[in-house]
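I have been asked to look over a protein record a colleague put together. What it holds is a sequence and that sequence's fold in token form. Please read both lines and tell me whether the tokens look consistent with the sequence. I do not need a full report, just your reasoning and any doubts. This is what I was given:
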Amino acid sequence: MQRLYTITQLTQEFDITTRTLRFYEAQGLVTPQRRGRQRLYNPADRTRIKLILRGKRLGFSLAEIREIIEMYGKAPGEAGQLKLLMEKITARRAELLEKRNDIEVSLAELDQVEAGARARMAEIGYVPDAGGADQ
């Protein structure tokens, strides 16, 4: 007999809200069985939830996560899924590297502006108080 998980068990295991799990259900990402009003999730649903949460931590959109997950059951199956995943990883890495570069440029610019402000403060004889707050 296949093990089934309740919504409470999965929300506690993955530290997510019932609302989140119901949202994934509404999006068609998981398909729990119904026993009256109770939702029962199978091991495949549990695995999907784990993959969804991992994808979100990596910065993938829900649409991208869905695309990756749904490829598993279609031709070319796992190989196609892995190829798509690698493409998504490459794109996400490029996006993050670009953001990191933008942040580094911004930080360098802030350093320059701060240095200029400090130099000007020294020129006009302004000395900030010990607490660093303006008077």
